[in-house]
Amino acid sequence: MERMTRFRAGLLVCLFMAILCFYCFRLYRVQVVDTGGDTNNITTFETRTRVKAARGNILDRNGNVLVTNRASYDLTINHFVLTSSADPNGTLYQLAQLCKERDIDYVDHLPISNSQPFEYTLDEYSTTWQSHFQTFLASRDHLDSDMSAPLLMRKLRESYLIPEEWSDEDARLVLGMRYELTLRTCVGSLSNYIFLSDVDNDTLAAVLELNIPGMNVESSTVREYSTEYAAHILGYVGAMNATQWEYYKKLDGYSMDALVGQSGLEEAFEEYLHGTDGSRVDVVTKDGTLVKSYYEVEPKAGQNVQVSIDLNLQSAAEDALALAIEGMRSEDTSQKGWDAQGAAVVAMDIKTGQVLVCGSYPTYDLSTLFENYNDLLNADLQPMYDRALQAIYPPGSTYKMSMTVAGIQAGEIGRWTQICDNGAFTKYPGMSPKCLVYSSSGRTHGYIDCTEALKVSCNYFYYELADRLSIDMIDSTAKSLGLGEHTGIELYEAVGYRSNPESKAALYSGDDSRWYKGDQILTGIGQAENRFTPIQLCTYAATLANQGVRYKATFLNRVVTSDYSSVVYENAVTVMSEMDMSDEAYDAVLTGMKKVASESGGTAYKVFGDYPVQVAAKTGTAQTGIQGHSDNGAFVCFAPADDPQIAVVVYGERAGSGGNLAPVAKAVLDAYFGTEAGDTITGENQVG
Questions:
Q1: Is the separation of the CB atoms in 402 and 477 below 8 Å?
Q2: CATH class of 311-673
Q3: 8-17, 82-91, 357-366: range with highest mean pLDDT
Q4: Where in the chain is the domain with CATH 3.40.710.10?
Q5: Which class is 45-307 in CATH?
Q6: pLDDT tens, 119-144?
């Protein structure tokens, strides 16, 4: 009996194993052999989804967030689920019509025009997307790259079973989506099809109502600006163009549809801000049911960049600049600055070269840049033009400190050397430039030394000094002080040029390119061919304050990890150049600039005469040569005068005079030193 029981048990086991093997064999045939690659018979499928990494924040020097991220949603389509559905073409047609009705732009890289006559648009795409197109053609035996665009469209309609009654335009819309989905099967490096990015709530609700098979909502982030200030330097991110992709594809962590910095600090510090995207594997059934999900690669957020800008100073500067320029404008054409236009303000930490303020007027709203882009391009005064870094202007009388240093260093004048102001400089026939006070009143300054000449901005003193010096000495001193030189700033900057024979020869042709003594005389008061940016003038002021030591200008303070737990990089102070400025030259410049602000008769006395912090300053007026319009104005200063910490420069197109801009610098110093702002002073009737 026992032997019979064992026999029956063994027989049952064998029968069970046979049945199990039979079903395993059948399952193999059904899922592998019989499918021939047709996913309709596959019960589950693995898809890879790129998980976007958050971009690092941009903060000011005090930790105030300037640019951050906000949560958003992307809509992706799982190609396996959609193509396994009953009517993928009809589903995509509904989706295309919804987007058409709502004017929604979605991702479509099919390089064929959207309407008849169909033409290839490969030139609009990077070489990588062009390569993907060739891979797509190669994956389908009946297609090749020699086909015309209309023939390819006909073949694709046949291949994807697009209904004949559909218009060519409707077919093209659906084929663009089918192309994107097919690419995910023949190009292994591509993740799920991101159909829409940063979807608003209304669009999200409308799309989800269609119940598109395989449509998923993915969490993402988009850039958000936490301040209305510093628009010209913060910059923005955007999709890469073909040239940028050729560069970024060589770097780790960049997909072809990644957003990168396109301008400003976003572009300058891209290497720190950009995160590394992750990869998630989802195992789904044909109906879209998620079976399993796991990360192949965890996303890594970008690092946070703390810049040198002080938001408190930046806001004070931009507000004061707008108030000053708009307050000057008048219907009364006899008023200096009645036709004031664009302007800029820059402030710098004298001991480090870090830029504390960098503002341009007029400005714009970065948060609505793309919506208003065309309007901004055509707006008066070019609001997107960064005058602080890119506009080059004649410095006017602010150049006179450089002339003072050059004269003393060359031994042509001393600290106490006096020159008699004769009103008009008539040494050379054919020219008789005048001092401003002589032109307006017929008076002269009489015998004055260089400190008094700076105080009252006597042009005649510097005509005479320019005549005594060689142009090489004038030019080399200006160069050593940073004028007409790169400041080292991380953003794009114009360089401008110093007034010298080489610059004039490069700018003009024929007889106009010849260098005359008159050019040298006018160079001495910051005219002729002198053209510098406001940030160069600020570097110049800081270099004077440092007795000839010129630091690299920078927007970078430090870089910290994404969780703020540790410092990745601390920016170091860098010396760009150093000149051996004598104590006598330094004392003369410092004394003269202090007189400008603190002594009665000084061209900035009305603004800084009773200021609680001693300021060293210089006003400047630069002729524009436009008949009937105001001159440009320039104002440079640093403080405290005897222990300089901050340099400020303000420049205004047709601002009338540098004195008109002194209140802007005062607003910056008020914010920096925590002093009371006091009454606004227009600076009218000041000269310099």
A1: yes
A2: alpha beta
A3: 357-366
A4: 311-673
A5: alpha beta
A6: 999 988 878 888 889 999 998 888 88
